[in-house]
Amino acid sequence: MIMVVGPIGTGKTSLLNALQQNGQKAVKTQSISYVNGSIDTPGEYVQMPRFYSSLTVTAAEAKIVLVVQDATDTKVSLPPGFISLLIRPVVGVITKIDLPGANREKAKALLKQAGIKEPYFYVSAHTGAGLPELIAYLRERGEKL
């Protein structure tokens, strides 16, 4: 089971929909949701420390955690060392690489600052760019999408 976490508006739900190829339109995630064998989390849970315990407990149910960073967002959204809260393997996913103003290197630096190590996957849920590589990586680790 994969879990996606990241700030508001990074495209977590769109990423899950693209990975699962379910054709659904993303809507704002209001609470932790279990969807087709994956865990989708609201962005507020990463941005408000009072929710960290909920993320930590929920991560225990996942096999792998995808931490999502929007390539067009240049502000720090994840606190330094954020990764230490999660007890599962973590993978950095940089989304919205197809949009004007996307800055892959800045997004990568923000993930590194949060404690996330390589590999990083650069994807667009809209165009499908980078999704085959991420899907292959997850399947190699036994994930069913």
From TrEMBL:
Protein's UniProt name: EutP/PduV family microcompartment system protein
Keyword Nucleotide-binding applies: yes
Taxonomic lineage: Bacteria, Bacillati, Bacillota, Clostridia, Eubacteriales
Pfam families given in the database record: PduV-EutP
Biological process according to GO: biogenic amine metabolic process
GO molecular-function terms, A-Z: ATP binding
Alphabetically ordered keywords of this record: Nucleotide-binding
Family annotation (InterPro entries): EutP_PduV, P-loop_NTPase
Signal peptide (UniProt feature, chain positions): none
Keyword Glycosyltransferase: no
